[in-house]
């Protein structure tokens, strides 16, 4: 029996691979014990218990970006959090810590180092975050989702994916997936998604492009996210929903996608060979642009800046592309050539090698 502490959270990009690895561990051995470490504010607070795993929470402590009262208090608070994780490691008799980045990972790495428990880092983005940069200096092993990720002694393992996405890489019933959403089973289909929260620019551009897409014979499944004010639509050739709890079917239904370039999304699309036009999130450190470098170079996708994703772009670039089935097939092959469908198994093998 092995006791695992999986640390990460904040965003779906950290939580989803954590859960995918947890599921793979359970599938391998029912006797293994898994605890997740996160914060009460991140997505893990909802997603981890919903998947049946116990979440242990610590304080959310963003790294100070400048001088001030918070920066002065930060070192003591951070040390207290590390002590809290040390106690968890000792009380639970943890054999290995696995971190995915986010607020919970840095304290977990340092606590593991102090208690002499081996830890493994997994970096989902091509441009690594500060917690994983720190952890990679002392880790027993480092796994990365993208080959271009610059971390010391990194091993390319790909992204741990949900089992239903892994299954799509081997078999997909596109017609049935389209029928599930009320779409025509025979019509070329565009999937549009901005992630769980949506993307204002993408949503507005697609809304303004409905007529030209319909005229081109392209049907659309548009997932707008929970924050969008656009109402649901279900009509021939166009379905709009706020949230999709069967993304595996949404991916299966599509011939092409328009999406943000989060690491999980890029990895899922590549694994199943779904070409896309990626519109990287324009705020933050720009890591989403780096996530698509390899897939674009392989001819599996295109990238357009947020400011350039307009109705004119849809008319001049997306419509001709989706009207060319030979090009869609070539792009699908290009996407799949860089995709990894067994990232969960590869990461688990890396961890077991450490143990």
Number of domains: 2
Strand neighbour order, sheet with most strands: 3-2-1-4-5-6-7
Structural class: alpha/beta
Give the helix tally. Answer: 16
CATH architecture call of the largest domain = 3-Layer(aba) Sandwich
Description of the molecule:
This protein has 355 residues and is α/β, with parallel strands linked by helices. It folds into two domains: 3-159 and 341-354, 3-Layer(aba) Sandwich (Rossmann fold); 165-338, Glycogen Phosphorylase B (Rossmann fold). Helix content is 44%, strand content 16%. The chain is built from 16 helices and 14 strands. The chain has helices spanning 12-28, 44-50, 69-91, 105-114, 130-136, 163-168, 174-180, 200-208, 210-215, 247-253, 263-272, 287-291, 293-297, 311-322, 325-338, 343-354; strands at residues 3-7, 33-38, 54-57, 96-99, 119-123, 141-144, 154-156, 189-193, 219-223, 233-235, 238-241, 256-259, 276-278, 301-303. The strands form two sheets. Strands 3-2-1-4-5-6-7 form a seven-stranded parallel β-sheet, sandwiched between helices. Strands 10-11-9-8-12-13-14 form a seven-stranded mixed β-sheet, with helices on both faces. Helix 1 packs across helix 16 and helix 11 (263-272) crosses helix 15 (325-338). It is globular. The termini are close together. The model has no long low-confidence stretch (mean pLDDT 93).
Characterize this entry briefly.
With 355 residues, the chain is α/β, with parallel strands linked by helices. It has 16 helices and 14 strands. It has a seven-stranded parallel beta sheet with strand order 3-2-1-4-5-6-7, sandwiched between helices.
